[in-house]
Amino acid sequence: MVASLRLSLAAAAAAALAVAVALLLPPLAAAQGETTCPADVPRRGAWMSVASFGGVGDGRALNTAAFARAVARIERRRARGGALLYVPAGVWLTGPFNLTSHMTLFLARGAVIRATQDTSSWPLIDPLPSYGRGRELPGGRYMSLIHGDGLQDVFITGENGTIDGQGSVWWDMWRKRTLPFTRPHLLELISSTDVIISNVVFQDSPFWNIHPVYCSNVVITNVTVLAPHDSPNTDGIDPDSSSNVCIEDSYISTGDDLISIKSGWDEYGIAFGRPSSGITIRRITGSGPFAGFAVGSETSGGVENVHVEHLNFFGMGVGIHVKTNSGRGGFIRNITVSEVTLNGARYGLRIAGDVGGHPDASYDPSKLPVVDGVTIKNVWGQNIRQAGLVRGIRDSVFSRICLSNVKLYGGDSVGPWKCRAVSGGALDVQPSPCAELTSTSEMSFCTN
């Protein structure tokens, strides 16, 4: 009987590993010539289940220690090619836990990693150096449910299992102003490289959902991110001071921006000085009360070389939002957004230099951001209330702003464009663009 059980476990391990590899291979679209994120998937040398470390998936037992033991075992074992931690079908209640390098966290079909709502069991960690304090409150911040720092070669994937933050208790504290520290993310990876996140549902995060910060070589593909539209600050995916990031083929419906690129906050982000760069985003669908795609407002380390295409948003606050403020410093440059469909939005587009607060009174209001080279093209929208706003800063004019083939329609009429402290070009824009964007001074940038 023991031998039979060993054979069954070995067969299950082999099957799970085969599924993991198959799910991480490029989708069928790649075979048809459609561009996808590059993702090299190694075969893991070992397989283990969280159930083997005392985990119980009954939705009642707390599995924080079981996850910690499993990850520690992976770290000690150092199997050739790394190891896969298998989470079987069931509801695995847990507090926050860390990942390790050369590891795959694999959620089987029907598996739910569910966050405990006992907020006292969430550890506090230091603020990020590019923020200087918790994003919501001074001091430290709560550790994310799934966390990693300084890791390499990490995959979070599966058969569309769910990572459930049970965020309502945190949202209530935020609304009642009883939060002692900044709320936790659902997933945060810090200073990590070679990361793939795919085929997982992220649900009801206490704060931002997926937050790679100071990371490089990150692929996020085929994920679903869900939270109620009235849940505060539940951003979907926020790459932050990170490079070589690819986000694609995902559905996001949350209470804040669906995707927002960041790079630190005021004097702390300026001092840290790490930009977000080399970011590709494509084939994203979703809905939310704020922005579908955003840059900012925390951009003090700079954001550059961003390519975004094939967005399909409905019921939005703003379709595309580029936002910064005096005191931010940094730069936003070489941003291209194209092939966008909007169905319902308060604003089709906003590029604004007066958005977002400051961490403390020590910021320098003379540190002005540079916004240069933002192209928005091939946008079609219906049920749009206000076409857009492009509003720079008097002493830092936003330059080379290009609108090309942007058609926004409403009911009886769409509110007109509003512009100031901006230069650039506009071609084939409906409703008629503002005068600042119809001058010929920088039209060559737009036509190119």
How is this structure best described in words?
- The chain has a single domain, classed as Pectate Lyase C-like (3 Solenoid).
- It is mainly beta.
- Helix 5 links the parallel strand 20 and strand 21.
- The strands form three sheets. The chain has a 21-stranded parallel β-sheet that branches. Strands 5-10-13-16 form a four-stranded parallel β-sheet.
- It starts with a helix and ends with a helix.
- The model is unreliable at 1-31 (pLDDT under 50).
- The protein has helices spanning 2-24, 28-31, 64-77, 168-176, 266-272, 443-447; strands spanning 46-49, 58-62, 83-87, 90-94, 97-98, 103-107, 111-115, 124-125, 141-142, 146-149, 152-158, 161-164, 187-190, 193-198, 200-203, 210-213, 216-221, 224-226, 243-253, 259-261, 276-295, 303-323, 331-352, 370-391, 398-408, 418-420, 422-430.
- This is Pectate lyase superfamily protein domain-containing protein.
- One of its GO terms (molecular function) is polygalacturonase activity.
- Belongs to the glycosyl hydrolase 28 family.
Please give the CATH class. Answer: Mainly Beta
Low-confidence stretches: 1-31
Strand content: 35-45%
Q: What structural class do you assign from the helix and strand content? A: mainly beta
CATH superfamily: Single-stranded right-handed beta-helix, Pectin lyase-like
Major pleated sheet = 21 strands, parallel
Rg, nearest Å: 23 Å
Work out the number of β strands. Answer: 27
How would you classify the quaternary structure? single chain
Put simply, the count of helices is 6
Return the CATH topology. Answer: Pectate Lyase C-like
**How many structural domains in the coordinates?**
1
Anisotropy-based shape: globular
> How much helix, percentage-wise, in residues?
10-25%
Averaged pLDDT: 91
**Distance between the first and last residues' Cα:** 72 Å
Q: What is the CATH architecture descriptor? A: 3 Solenoid
